[in-house]
Amino acid sequence: MSRTMNPLRAALGSAVIMLAALALSAVPALAAEKYQKIEPRNMIIIGDRAVDIAFHLGVLPTGMNVRCSLWPMCDKLKVVSQPLRCPGCLTSGQTETLTKFIKAKGIKLAIVEKSQPFCILKADSDPVKALPLLEKLGVEAKIVDFSQGVAPAIAQTAAILGKQEAGQALAAKYEKAVKKLDKAIAGKKLGKKVVVLQGIYQAQTGKAFIQVEAPGGYADKFILEPLGCANVGQALVPAGKEPAKGHWTIRKLAGLAKAKPDAIVITGDSVAVQKALAEAIVAQPELGKVPVFSLPRYIDSSVIERPEIVGKWLWALK
Fold first, then answer.
1. Which residues of the chain have a pLDDT value below 50?
2. The whole model's pTM is what?
């Protein structure tokens, strides 16, 4: 029997390997197909939310002025659209990159996001402050106003891009997703203490860093507070140490047990956090009982994806 089974097992094993290889080879093709549907336009967009909506309408600008260092989606979008620093840079007078790009590409149209606040981590960051520069460079600026909500902003963006039909469909889909999320979190008081950790691994140096999200940031405002959870990350850092851009940067998780979290959320490079967590568990074995979840980061840039992202956090934490 063994002589019969061994060839069979070998054949099955070969089939599994072939299927796996086919699946992996299809990934780049699928990604390529998705981006083939994106229409690049010789224009710029200033503001993360406006770029996110344009992407979901099937359009990306030649250049985008967005918070690439904070917005995870930027890494995907920059395959088509060149990052031109951030609105905060424009506010502080760092306009050279944007100016050179506009002149080199012959840009004549800019979509400018109007949001108050644009960034809760940098109060003076405001895309609208770029309007005088755009006028000086002879670029027509079209404002997309988010003060009335995301759905009206979708309609405005669609009108500018000539994508009214797609805009109506996107707005309807978005509002349906928001209603579903609102119903799911209504009255939810999970009452959990959570630590949010962003992993960063530097391949050049072989070093890993951990960013501890500070209370009062985007995770608190859009996820933890609506779910009735508390951010206890401050216990991981020395008393009196001020956060920078909404987080503290550390190398080890020695203070994690002191925070007594009910859950640990990892965003960014999960391996960078997992390695530090494994070391912390050796010293404090009780940490091994704390559930750990790798979840998408949200900084109110991916407005269309917000219902899906928050829903995923709810599903994990409940």
1. 1-33
2. 0.85
